[in-house]
Amino acid sequence: MSFAYHSALDLTRMIAAKEISPVELVEDTLARQEVLEPALNCFVTRTPEIALAAARKAEQAVMAGAELGALHGLPLSVKDLISMADVPWTFGSKPFAENIGPVDAPSVERARAAGACIIGKTTTSEFGCKGTGDSPLTGITRNPWNSEHTPGGSSGGAAVAALTGMGPLHIGTDGGGSVRIPASFSGIFGLKANFGRVPVYPASPFGTLSHLGPMTRSVADGALMLTVMAEPDPRDAFSLPYDARDYFSVLEGGIAGLCVAFSPDLGYAEVDPEVAKLVAAAAKSFAALGAQVEQVDPGFDNPQAIFRSHWYAGAAHILRAMTPEQREL
Fold it and tell me: Quick check: 162 pLDDT over 80?
């Protein structure tokens, strides 16, 4: 039996009830990864030893009747713009092909503490600098719906891994769409969390543009994951104060009575007609669920020039630290 498309919530219940073993689940995920990865190319580094060691530890905790973490025994991937101790940290860039992560980033640390079993680092466009799923180091990551199309980027590998059942939980990053674009292109759930909600360390060269968020196959799984990721960290001066809310429990109340502001084009954007039609239908679904939907524009001009100033400054910071040989690569 394959557990590829079980939700994280179902899997945590099955593990706690001893219906499946964390080792069995991780082995199943690694086997699926072995079969699908050559065609899809969504992992730059696979970490089966790390995943299995965590799974064995998780299994021992279950058998001992210990308290289980929120992500206990669940396979999880980490985008390769995020540091993971003693594991390659390449940024999708040839000059950093041999670079090793110095520490666990807060999101990785939180996931491990909650019992997750990390199966590898997912592909990214070089430094996350474009919205497609390819890089000079790792080549092209394929969209499973159509291998001739991109899965989007820069968190393309995470989106593909989520979509194809290579684990239920995946950590992505988003500056200018890097979670939202591949979530849209691949058909999964992705959230660019508010700045500071998920702490970042080591700091991104793109500064305040850098946000982290969950990428999953369902909203509920994303909420479960965000609750774990969202604790503050003293290494990130911008991380928000501790918030005791459980994002998963918030889902139980539904959205009836909430106010939803909807803008078809933000007041300035050119929107493809097919996209506009789909988004308008989605807005109507909120109304059908009892929310009050009001069409408004946010009232600001196109921020592209401001965004580019911040983004290019970050890119210049990366290049400044490189040798001429690294720049050539």
Answer: yes
The pairing of beta strand 134-135 with beta strand 139-140: antiparallel
User: What's the length of the chain?
Assistant: 329
Distance CA 160, CA 152 (A): 9
* Catalytic annotation, pick one of 21, 77, 154, 210: 154
Query: For residue range 36-48, what is the model confidence (pLDDT) as tens digits?
Result: 999 999 999 999 9
Question: What's the CA gap between 130 and 106, in Å, rounded?
Answer: 25
* 80, 92 Cβ separation under 8 angstroms: yes
- Residue 253: per-residue pLDDT: 84
Looking at the predicted structure, is the pLDDT value of residue 1 above 90?
no
Residue 154 known to be catalytic: yes
Q: What is the pTM of this model?
A: 0.96
Q: Which structure tokens are listed for 84? A: 């993971």
Give the SS3 label for residue 35. helix
Q: Where are the beta strands (DSSP E) in 95-253?
A: 117-122, 134-135, 139-140, 169-174, 189-190, 211-216
Checking DSSP bridges between strand 189-190 and strand 211-216, what pairing results, if any?
A: antiparallel
Catalytic residue among 21, 77, 79, 186: 79
Contact 312, 279 (CB under 8 A): no
Q: Is 130 one of the catalytic residues?
A: no
Distance of alpha carbon 79 from alpha carbon 318, whole angstroms: 18
Catalytic residue among 178, 186, 204, 239: 178
Terminal Cα distance for the chain, rounded = 45
Quick check: is 192 catalytic? no
Please, which residues have CB within 8 angstroms of residue 300's CB and are 6 or more apart in sequence?
267
